[in-house]
Amino acid sequence: MAIKKKTSGKAVIAKSKKGSGAKKSKKTLLVKKKVTAKKAIVLKKTGVKKQTPIKKVVVKKLTTKAKPIVKNKKVSVKKLAPKKAVKKSLSKKPINKPVKKAVAKSVKPTNQELKTKVEKKTSVEKKTPAQVAVNVEKTLKVGVKTRKQLVAEPPQPVIEVSNHPKTKVKTILISQPKPENDKNPYYDLSKKYNLIETFRQFIKIEGLPVKDFRNQRVDILEHKAVILTSRLAVDHYFRMCNEMRVTVPESMKYFCINEATAYYLQKYIQYRKRKIFFGHQTIRDLVDVIRKNKEEKFLLPAADVHKEQICDFLDAIGIKYTKAIMYRTVSANLSDIKNLNDFDMLVFFTSAGINSLKQNFPIFKQGSTRIACFGAATANELKKHGYRLDVYAPNPKNPSMSGAIDEYIKEANKR
Fold first, then answer.
1. How far apart (Å, rounded) are the C-alpha atoms in residues 282 and 229?
2. Phi, psi (5° rounding) for residue 285?
3. Domains, the chain, ordered by start
4. Concatenated DSSP letters for 383-413?
5. What sign has the CA pseudo-torsion 163, 165, 168, 174?
């Protein structure tokens, strides 16, 4: 009986031992959970992530792979060296020199190209003035908007200038009215060479009477477009309309030779409400606009002595127009000028000015006074009356009268 009790006691003790161990294991698990939870909270606050052993392996692999890359980067380390080291390396190894030599060789012209260039230069230098005055195509501007239009200009006539010995020029008489502003090329010439300039108009313009205009049998209202070549043409066109009691319609189109003439129309009409076109200096600037209005019939107010170039140009384009003489040029009274020989140079711009010279000074002998003319018609009229031509414009070098005079005085005043 006693043995049974012992065995039962041992069994009880074993059971008790087992129960206490189970309790301890439960406590340890709870403690571990609390610790892990605290660690997780701390890690969240600090932002540090828990590294797994797998990541450590990956890092090892990357470090092993990066080793050969670091070895290869030794070449790139030299590029990041200081400036002195870079300069030495470039000086030791001239890499770009052979490339530059190759480019220079390709740019050098051959012997044949040099020969052709020399031949071209000699051919240009040997050209005569007649060969220079060949048909030239220019890019022209039309109205306010610039448009490229190719027009073949007629050849300029070749006019011979005398070889009279050039002496100093101090006084000049210009057959034009005195300019209102100081912005004038002739004022610049006087400042440049210390010249004494006098402006005196040799011609006077008179309006044609209505009786003489009616003899031309021109109906103004038949025309729906007007070509205005100057401010005088504007004044006498509206004067004739008022005297004949003709109201100009608002639909009338105005083609002006330059911008100044176009703005001068404000004196008679409202500029904004009309169709106004203008060029830059010549009738050729209006080629594109005139061709678009071919169906219209044009009126050309002109003087009794006018340039035939405009009429020839309109005939060449094939435009219907009527030339109406509305004003005429008359010789002015030049009794205030006592002696023309007091002037070293006389400047004329129209053939009417030459006629006025002959009419007012019939006994005038040119002698040492130089005469400058603008335009072929003026030069031909001068030669008809037996005078000598010393300066002519426009020429290939100087398109303006002031430029031609400037070139002449440069040579004359040197001596």
1. 9
2. -65, -20
3. 171-202+332-412 (3.40.50.10090), 206-331 (3.40.50.10090)
4. HHTTPPP-EEES-SS-SSHHHHHHHHHHHHT
5. negative
C-beta contacts of 352-356 below 8 A and 24+ residues apart: 352/202, 352/203, 352/305, 353/175, 353/202, 353/203, 353/378, 354/378, 354/381, 354/382, 354/385, 354/387, 355/331, 355/381, 356/202, 356/203, 356/331, 356/332
Nearest to 37 by CA among 55, 25, 29, 27: 29
Residues ≥6 apart with Cβ < 8 Å to 185 = 400, 402, 403
**Tens-digit pLDDT profile for residues 125-176:** 444 444 433 333 333 333 343 343 444 555 667 788 999 988 999 999 999 9
How far apart (Å, rounded) are the C-alpha atoms in residues 275 and 250? 9
Query: Does the pLDDT at position 8 exceed 80?
Result: no
**Beta bridge pairs of residue 228:** 256
- Tell me how many helices (H) and strands (E) the chain has: 16, 13
> Can you tell me the distance from the alpha carbon of 133 to that of 136, in angstroms, rounded to the nearest whole number?
8
- Give one DSSP letter per residue of 318-376, joined into a string: T--EEEEEEEEEEE---TT---GGG-SEEEE-SHHHHHHHHHH-TT---TT-EEEEESH
Q: What is the pTM of this model?
A: 0.55
Give Cβ neighbours of residue 281 (< 8 Å, ≥ 6 apart): 257, 258
Question: Which amino acid is present at 226?
Answer: V
- 303: tokens are 């003087």
What would the pLDDT profile of 44-87 be if each residue is shown by its tens digit? Answer: 655 555 544 444 444 444 444 444 444 444 444 444 444 444 44
Q: Which residues pair with 381 in a beta bridge?
A: none
The per-residue pLDDT for range 28-47, each reduced to its tens digit, is: 666 666 666 766 665 565 55
CB distance 248 to 238 below 8 Å: yes
Q: At what angle do helices 351-360 and 376-384 cross, to 10 degrees?
A: 30
